Amino acid sequence: MASLWRHVYFKQVLLKEIEEAFTDKEADEVLVNAHSDLLALVKRLTNEEETNRQEGKECDNFLNALDVLILILKFAQSNCNQIDNKFKLKLTDKLIDCVLKPSRNIFLAGEWIMLDQQRKEDLMNLMNDMKDQIPLKKREILSMQGYAENPWSTPAVKNLINGKTEKEEEVLGLLSSEGVEGVVLRIEMLLESSMYREALKAVSTVVMSLISEDMILQSYVSTSAPSIVDRLIDIFIILSVKLNKTLRLLKVLKQIGFEDINKIYIRRITAYITGQLPSIPKPEPKPKPPPAPSTSDATATAEKEE
After folding, report:
1. Whether the Cβ atoms of residue 71 and residue 30 lie closer than 8 Å to each other
2. What residues have CB less than 8 Å from 255, skipping those under 6 apart?
């Protein structure tokens, strides 16, 4: 899987996670300094981006982003045994939380797949050690290891991108295990690699599973990042038009409802094209049936009629 690595996506997610994890950074100097050090690492990537832009380079150095990930993991490891300082123990947890989502950008990239085996093994050994040293974050570290070992080769993922998913439960299971954001990231990585047909197979399967029942759709909308499900539908519509998959497109549009398409999704797509994403209204909730009258209400109504 080929790709042109750009720091911007990894950096955006990392910055967001840093700010969310360090909302209480003023509580202690340890947290203040750590927050400053993390921002310095991000600044390093920003400076490289600017240099590459000035020199007309199409991509950034993947290894530099990988080094940032490794430095943060080692920073977490160095603090995990300092049980006499509660803020350093707290810092360990925050650092793991900071890299959990950004690490997916690293491990799903084509550059990671093509990376020499020794560098991969060094990182895997680091995570193996941390898994035992930081038991409270074992689940998160195992999740990162799963992405690192098999970024694209699990049966559920292979079936998804090859259009061979037979059961809706398999798709919903993948959405539950990786989150809607994780699946969207996979689809966007396929797009970055110009694998449009594979991206369409994946996104159409996911969208059909989500919109099959309103209860399923609302469940994932309420537990996912704002607008992430809308983003999936946007990608599906654009790819269907690009690859001339009219019948598949009409099937989904009918399921969504043409009124919502005209009011919301067409406006979103127009906004993408113009480069400006305005405030777009959400679909209006379907009206609920009026509650059945209580016994006392029915009695009062009957007395009035008499």
Report:
1. no
2. 208, 211, 212
Low-confidence stretches of the chain (pLDDT beneath 50): 277-289, 294-306
CA 285, 287, 289, 291 dihedral sign is positive
Q: 162, 124 in Cβ contact below 8 A?
A: no
Record the tokens describing residue 71, joined without a space: 């430095």
| Residue 47 to residue 35: CA distance in whole angstroms | 18
Number of neighbouring beta carbons within 10 Å of residue 221: 17
pLDDT, residue 273, reads 60
Give per-residue pLDDT as tens, 168-216. Answer: 899 999 999 899 999 999 999 999 888 999 999 999 999 989 988 888 8
How far apart are alpha carbons 96 and 79 in whole angstroms?
Answer: 11
Q: How far apart are CA 158 and CA 235, in angstroms?
A: 19
- Distance CA(165)–CA(233), nearest Å, equals 19
Which amino acid appears at position 71 of this protein? L
